[in-house]
User: Which sequence fits this backbone?
């Protein structure tokens, strides 16, 4: 049995369409249909049923769908152990762009110093799409935002840092109150379709600030570049020194807010959490744990 057919079957069920699965897998719809027929023949059961232009899994298909991801993970782990020695092989890393532009290069340097024989491939993207690739065994470890949903037992999460919201302004405004800047200056907004942008939007609403919006961008660094050009101020997660390096940009901390949950005084401004995700069933989990150690050393 070709395990690729199981992988492609999972994609068909996920999308509910052979043509869409074929598009995502860069195959022809007829090739996908042929693979599904072969898989059904080898398993001796109908796996899919058509409903107009869509398809859904039969009862047998549902059983394969439930076990299929684990089967692929087990096979990937077996292949990795057989094909590589104790140190060699490939680590497939997924990372959000803000981390890639910030601390990831230093972490990669530390990891390579430990594992010189390991090849590394890096895919940048948003946390939801990277998570999907992780659970489908297309990636081995993620540096990403903490998911907002409960994780299955097979997925490990380790927090690396928190990135509080900060105000970006030009040097001439650095002595002003950050809340006053948000109220009176044009805002170069961070995209509200992204987690950091939604966090900033909630903060503005909580403070009763209705900003004068100049533009909305889906990149923290792009926001910093616009601030550098005098187009307004920004409210973004603090991704590190890269925000102001080589720019006429200053990073202002927001005032602490209210009372902490434990009643121990004020709490810091809202922050997003960045960390590592990996599958504890993967043969590459040992590299994920080593990457975690490197990241914690680099971030202090």
Assistant:
């Amino acid at each position: 049995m070709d395990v690729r057919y199981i992988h492609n079957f999972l994609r068909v069920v996920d999308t509910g369409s052979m043509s869409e699965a074929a598009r995502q897998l860069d195959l022809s719809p007829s090739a996908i249909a042929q693979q599904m027929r072969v898989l059904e023949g080898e398993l001796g059961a109908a796996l899919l049923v058509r409903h107009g232009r869509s398809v859904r899994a039969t009862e047998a298909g549902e059983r394969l769908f439930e076990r299929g991801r684990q089967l692929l993970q087990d096979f990937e782990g077996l292949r990795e152990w057989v094909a590589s020695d104790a140190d060699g092989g490939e680590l497939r890393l997924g990372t959000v762009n803000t981390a890639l532009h910030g601390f990831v290069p230093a972490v990669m340097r530390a990891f390579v110093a430990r594992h010189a024989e390991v090849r590394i491939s890096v895919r940048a993207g948003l946390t939801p799409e990277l998570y999907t690739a992780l659970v489908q065994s297309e990636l081995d470890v993620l540096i990403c935002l903490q998911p907002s949903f409960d994780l299955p037992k097979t997925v490990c999460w380790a927090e690396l840092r928190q990135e509080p919201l900060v105000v970006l302004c030009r040097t001439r405004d650095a002595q002003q109150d950050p809340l006053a800047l948000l109220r009176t200056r044009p805002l170069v907004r961070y995209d509200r379709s992204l987690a950091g942008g939604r966090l900033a939007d909630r903060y503005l609403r909580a403070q009763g600030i209705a900003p004068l919006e100049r533009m909305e961008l889906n990149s923290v660094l792009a926001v910093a570049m616009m601030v550098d050009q005098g187009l307004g101020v920004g409210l973004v997660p603090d991704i590190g020194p890269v925000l102001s390096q080589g720019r006429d940009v200053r990073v202002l901390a927001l005032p602490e807010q209210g009372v902490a949950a434990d009643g121990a005084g004020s709490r810091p401004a809202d922050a997003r959490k960045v960390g590592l995700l990996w599958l504890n069933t993967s043969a590459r989990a040992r590299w994920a744990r080593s990457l975690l150690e490197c990241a914690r050393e680099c971030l202090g």
Summary: The radius of gyration is 23 Å.
